[in-house]
Structures are given as C-alpha cells and as structure tokens.
Design goal:
This protein has 508 residues and is an alpha/beta fold. The chain is built from 30 helices and 8 strands. The C terminus is likely disordered. It binds adenosine-5'-triphosphate and magnesium ion.
Length: 508
Amino acid sequence: MTRLALSPRILDHLDFGTPSAERDIGRGLEKCFVESAAYQRVHSGAKTIVLGNRGAGKSAIFQVIAKRERIAGSNVIELSPDDYSYELLSSALAAERAGSWAKHGAYAAAWKYLIYVLVMKEIARKGMRLTKNGGADIHRYIRDNHATSQLGSISLLISYLKRLEGIKIGPLEAGVRTRELDRLYKLEEIHNLLPSLRNVLERRRVVVFVDELDRGWDSSEDAQAFVSGLFQACVSINGLHRNLRVYVSLRQELYDDIPALYEDAQKHRDLLERIHWSEESLLELIAKRIRYSAQERGYDSEMLRRIPDRACWSAVFAGDSDRFGESSFGYMMERTLYRPREIIQFCTEVLETARGRASGLPLPFASITRAEHGYSAERAKDIAAEYRYQYPGLMSVFDVFRGRSHTFARDDLELLCLALATGEIPTRNSHSWLTYCEPDALIEILWQVGFLTAQPIGDEVAHRTGNGAFFGAHQVQHLNLAAVQRFQVHPMFRAYLGLEDPASRIHS
Ligand SMILES: Nc1ncnc2c1ncn2[C@@H]1O[C@H](COP(=O)(O)OP(=O)(O)OP(=O)(O)O)[C@@H](O)[C@H]1O
Ligand SMILES: [Mg+2]
C-alpha cells in the first residue's frame, strides 16, 4: 500500500480548518472543498433550497458558490444573520388571531418585495450602465424610493408587512380593503419593473443567498411564517429569469418543525437538496486538508495527489497497536453523526492535545482517547442546544444515562423512558414535551437526535450489513424502530457520560 511519511515539522502547521464555513472560506476552504453530488446539483441551479443538520456544510456550499460566482463576474447578495431577528418580528407585528390575517401569504409577498428591491438596488448601483441595457426605469425607481433610505433588509421587510397588516386589521371598509390588499400582494409598486429587470438580466447575473435562518430561531408564529414565506418567494423569484437565482438554506429540524412547509411541500419538493455524508466522503474531506497543509509546507502537490485518502489519514493518526491495529479512522468516525464539523473538531482537538507531547507524526492512538472526553462533552452540549426549542432540557435527559450500561434491552429502556415521562426520575425544564411522552415516542426522539443507535433485527438492513451492528438515524434512512429489541447510547456521548472509560485505553 502507498504510504505517506510526514516530517515532524508538519505537526506544527497542520490545520483542519475552523468549525464554520464563514471563517473557513478565508483559510483555504475552496482548495479543500469536497465537490459532492449535492454541491453539483445546487451549483447547477437544479436545487435551490439546501437542507441539512448543523455543521453538515450548508454554508460551505453557499460560500464556495458565492466565491465562484463573484469570480465569474456575477453580482452576489448575501443576507446575513444580523439581518433577521425573530423577536423583532414578533414584537413589531400583531398576532395572526388578533387580525385574522394570513401571515404566510403576507410574508411571501414581503420577501418577494425585499429580494426584488435588493436585486434592483444592486444592479442600479453607481457606475452601472443601466440606461444602455434598458433599465432606466429601475434606476429611477431606486433613486426615488430607496436611494436615501438607510433601512436594513429586515426593516424593509417589516415595513412592507406593516402596510399589509395596516390594511388587514385597520378600519377600512371591505371593498377598499380588498383592492388595497390585492395591490400589495401583487407587488404593484414594482410589478411593472419586472419586464425591465428581465431585460437587464439577459446580460447580468445576480445570485442571492439566504443562510443561517436558524440563528435566534424561536419557533414563534412569525418565525414560521418568515421561513415558509421565504420558501414561496424563492420558488416564485427563481421563475423570473435563469440569471436571477435565490438560494435558501435551512436546518433539517426547523423544516420538520414548520407544518406550513410540509403541507405546501409539493410546491418546492423538487427544489430541495438534503445534505448527507458517508464515511468515504468525510475521509476525503480530511485527506484534502492534510494534503493542503503538507503542500503549504513544500510537499510536492503531484506526489500528494497520488496518495490515497486512507494513506493521508494514516500519516497523521496511527491505529491502535494494542488492539490489533484498530483503525483510528473507524474509531473517530464511529463517534460522529457523519457531519463535517464533527470530524473537523475531533481531529483538531486530537491535534491540540498531542502538540507538545508528541514528537512527530503519526500521532499515537492514545492522543485520540485523551482528546475524546472534551470532544464528547462539547458534542453532547451542542446537540442539546441544537434541539432546545423542540426538546428543551434535553441535556438533563442525556444525563440520566450517566453511569448506566451503554446497551439496553428494549424492555429496560422503555422502563427508563416511563420513569422519565412520569417524573419519577426528575429532569430539568423538559415538561413541555417529556410529560406523558409514551416510551416509544421518547425512544424515537432519542434516536432521531442521534443519542441512541438501534440494532435492526430480521430486516433488510441487518441482512445486508451483517448482524450485530447498531445504526443511528444518520446511517439508515428507514428503520422499523418498533421492532428493534436492542439499543445503545451512541459512542459520541459515552465518554462524557462515563459509559466507557477512555482512560483504560490510554497507553503511556
Ligand atoms: N464540502 C465540503 N468540503 C470541505 N469542507 C466542508 C464541506 N462542507 C462543510 N465543510 C466544513 O465543515 C464545517 C461545517 O460546515 P458549515 O459551516 O458549512 O455547516 P452548516 O451546515 O452551515 O452549519 P450551521 O447549521 O451551524 O450553520 C466547516 O468548517 C466547513 O468548512
Ligand atoms: Mg451555516
């Protein structure tokens, strides 16, 4: 097998990147980027709505496409997290029941208005020769209506919603109200500019990215309408011209948390791209980063390209010699939910723990187990935080497993779940969802969030993969959980919960 030997000085310069794509883009993300099939479909525009768990790589895809579009001369608009605040929306607008106004439709209209105005502002920027391209009316509209306005994106959206709200719940008589509403829903203020916009787009390309919608997510009526309205607007605007493209990303659980979205799913299902990773693609991701670091320190790029991904990994992380060379890659991968951020964090943590102790590469297996507790604790906290709106207090449910066995027969697990639901085993802040939660339902939740793995019996998966193995929701799409008889706590959580003593694996 081809081997790669890296000199000890690489240890000081090895860099697995930062945990988020926004910061990674300045540190070589593009050079280490894994161009998955998902990326290809998004890049080609076949898919414009990207769904994925935290740290799955939604922003990475957007950052790389944005960079490439800029290089190709397109105008790029990025709506960043500071631009939306769900609390502000809720406090600024009347509740739906107060005014019996359909918020989803109102938000869709407001989003369309906002995005079209931002696009027109972008192409009417100083120095752009719109008159020649037949966009003089756009120029005039922006100059007369938005030139002096310092309103941020969210304020522009709220001001449009306020106009709708004013008519819906204001003191107007019915006929006037219908006419006014119709004008606002049809975006009459800008509607006549769309043919000109189409003309301009023949020669100009504008790409809009709406990312990180989950920051500050509070699951409120307004937050839900905000997102479902955006989906509608995205579908509609993408139909205007091939050179105007709006991309939206959303966390998978938020998508599942918005009934209006899956009720309306047939409208956008064909545009959804769900990000999934496999062990091989994550190995490729780390190998690319190892090659990049080595290349930066003078290693020949042609030679590095010929080294297989596995050999790159083994040049940095040794197997466990006390366990017949158990693969360090398999060990670390088993402690993830197959998300790039996790493997990047784990590798970085191992590297940092080893620096100062190890004198060269590859790092001994013991440095992995040494770093494991910190990584495991971080991940448990992150997962609990990720689901804090759906399942508040999840961390205290995880903590109940502390010190127990990591493998459960179904009956024992159901008893434990029952004790949790009845409050016999107390937990903190979790009554909103845990009280009266059926044991089966609780098992399903713990499986979905990644805390439990399940051993399928007698079904297709077990047959294909050999018996005995336990699988998590990140590995199998469909599993008849009701038939499963044995469960395990996912290895990622075990060091934190003291279910496996990593110290026993540390060899001096
Ligand atoms: N295709 C890829 N190639 C290389 N690195 C990637 C890829 N996808 C993601 N990464 C890296 O994984 C990490 C997490 O990715 P990213 O920040 O895009 O996740 P995210 O889905 O946007 O998460 P969040 O929901 O927290 O915003 C980043 O360091 C990013 O650079
Ligand atoms: Mg992101």
